[in-house]
Amino acid sequence: ARRILIDFIAYLKLANDFYSKNISLKRAFENVLLKERPWLYTTLAMACYGNSDEKRDLSEFYAKLGCNKNMINTVLRFGKLAYAVKNITVLKNFTKRIIK
User: Fold this and answer.
1) Of the candidates 29, 27, 25, which has an alpha carbon nearest to the alpha carbon of residue 10?
2) Three-state SS letters, 41-95
3) Which range of residues forms the domain containing residue 78?
């Protein structure tokens, strides 16, 4: 979980330090982070393995990137369920079909 937050801290710091004067370039750089750390899978991982502070920080980072904070928080609330789904093959395959 900490590795995920380190990525967010670094990418957002780089975006602010190097691209703060060019909004479109900054947004493009932030989109790299969204591709590297897709919100759903990253949030599910954090829901399973992160503590409450890490979950709050992740929610704030995604909000800065323009993601729906309510959606992120909903996924985070169902973290134990996500962990159970991850360990049951039938449910995992069903979930993959729903997400696609």
Assistant:
1) 29
2) HHHHHHHHHCCHHHHHHHHHHHHHCCCCHHHHHHHHHCHHHHHHHHHCHHHHHHH
3) 2-99
Residue 85 φ then ψ, to 5°: -60, -40
Q: Among residues 23, 34, 82, 28, which one has the least CA distance to residue 61?
A: 34
59-91: pLDDT as tens digits? 999 999 999 999 999 989 887 776 776 677 776
DSSP assigned state of 21: T
% of the chain at pLDDT higher than 70:
89
- Structural domains counted in the chain: 1
Record the tokens describing residue 81, joined without a space: 């369920």
The number of residues making up the chain comes to 100
How far, in Å, CA of 18 to CA of 13, rounded? 8
